[in-house]
Each structure stands twice: as structure tokens, then as C-alpha cells.
Amino acid sequence: MGFKQFGQIAVILFAFGVAVQAGPVVYTLDTTGYNFQLDGGGGGAQATLDGQNLEIYCDDFANYIYVPESGYQAYVSTLTSSSNLSDTRFGSVSNWTTITNQNSLTMASVINTATDLGRYQMAAYLVSQYNMADGTSKSFTLGGNSTTNDGVQQAIWDILDPKGENFGQIGTLAGTDSALQAAASWYSSTGGNGSTSRDSFLANFRIVSDATMGSCGNALVGCGFQEQITVVPEPRHLALMLVGLLILGSAVYRRFAVASRSKA
Fold this sequence. Notes:
This protein is of the alpha+beta class. The protein contains 7 helices and 6 strands. Helix 1 runs antiparallel to helix 7, helix 3 (116-127) crosses helix 5 (176-189) and helix 4 crosses helix 5.
């Protein structure tokens, strides 16, 4: 088989792969138990995404998710610089509630001028800051309620709070300003959108959004399950697709090789 023939096959296989990936993939999300539940709401839960075990963390004050519950239909979005947020709950928001300079918060302007992607990125950073009472990070041990964790959750809700939606708060928490400060400092220190350090940190973070919320008149409130942020390995369906393409490519290659020898 000549190089030209092989190139044509490669183009066909690439086009097939693109076709398979066209449109958002719908996953099945099952919540199985609480990781830790905070006094003011939110926190983390154990879940499976298409059967894959993971931890999910609330980024959405105004909606609910039930634990345990099975059969949620979900979209999964990335958080790096080239990410498309059209399937997320807050991806089209441009009018945000203003973060004010409270107590020690001196970097409010960093949050207030951030895009929807930037806000999601800061929320993901804050997810990484959850700690249990015993000092371990994101343990599956129940009972992670603390001033620090409550503050992290409230800071996530503050960052992702659309103006005019009356999302509310769980009260002024001692740890909220320090969590907001930490998120803004991290965001500033990692450089602008597209920086290698920021994208590297966020590579495995995902936003898990209700696949049905687009059918509502206002997807921000009362539409679908509460949006979550999680950390996952590479999507399993992508790995399976690549394996399938390799098998298909090998079969096509052998077919052309046999045909070429028969013509020799």
C-alpha cells in the first residue's frame, strides 16, 4: 500500500472520530453517599459517572441534588483555556453579583473582572482546598464540617453568583474572605488565560451539569440537578473510541495490503 493510500485511510479514520464526538456526550450520574456534608449546605458527595467512582462538589447554590439517587443525565465540561462552557449552568452569565472588600479581602477586583471561565477555574481551585477535621484532604471520611470548609463552600457560591438571581448566602462566615482571597491570589499567580501552569492544574477538573436544564426558560434556577465540580481521569469513552479506531485502522490496512500484493 502506498503512502497516499495510507494517508487517505488516516483522513477517513480521523473524520470518523470527529463524527463520533459530534455533539455533547450524555453521561449517567449516580450519587451514592455523602463524602462530607457541611452545616450550611453543600459540601461533597460520592458518585459514579458512567460507573466510574469519583467525588463531586457543589458549585450551585440555587438548585438541589439528592443523595443517594440514580439516573441523572449529565453533560461534562472541561475547565482549561480552550473549554466550551455552553453546556454548563453559568457558562452564559455575564452579569455577576459584585464581590465587596470585606475584612481582609484585598483582591476583590480580580474576581469581579473575571470571565465565566475564570470564575469556574477559581471554584475548581477552591474545591482542591477542602480539608477534613483530621487534616487530610478530600477524604471519604464523613464529617468534614469546619469553619474552613464552610468558608470554601460559601466562597464558591459567591464567585458563581449571578446578579439578580437572589441566590443568597448561608451567612457571613469567618473563612469566606480568606477562601476568596486564596482563589483570587491563585488565579493571579498562574497568569492569564491559556497559561501552562493554570491549564496543567485544571487538566483533570470537570463541571458536571444537568443535561436537561437547557429546556427550561431559566436554566439558572429550578431546572435540573445541582451542578457539581469533580476531578476525573480521561473519559473512558474516549479511550474506548481510540482503541476501536486502532482496530479498525489495522483491519483496513491489512485489507489494502492484501489487495496490493494480489495486484503485484
